[in-house]
C-alpha cells in the first residue's frame, strides 16, 4: 500500500475548472477568476509528506 498525492501543487479542478478545490501540498496564490501572484507557499501537509518519503512511511 502507498500514498500518492493528486498533485504536488494546487491545480485547476478538471471537473469544475475552478481553483477553489486545493489538492496539492504547495499552495498557489490564484483564485477562480485567475487573479493572484502565482506565488507558491508550502502548506502544513508539506513537511508531513516530506517525512513520509524520508522514512518510507515508518513514522506516519
TrEMBL record:
The keyword Hydrolase applies. GO terms for molecular function: hydrolase activity, hydrolyzing O-glycosyl compounds. The keyword Hydrolase applies. Keywords: Hydrolase. GO terms for biological process: carbohydrate metabolic process. It comes from the Bacteria. This is Family 1 glycosylhydrolase.
Amino acid at each position: 500500500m502507498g500514498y500518492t498525492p493528486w498533485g504536488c501543487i494546487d491545480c485547476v479542478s478538471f471537473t469544475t475548472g475552478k481553483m477553489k478545490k486545493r489538492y496539492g501540498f504547495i499552495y498557489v496564490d490564484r483564485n477562480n477568476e485567475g487573479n493572484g501572484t502565482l506565488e507558491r507557499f508550502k502548506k502544513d501537509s508539506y513537511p508531513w509528506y516530506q517525512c513520509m518519503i524520508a522514512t518510507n512511511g515508518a513514522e506516519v
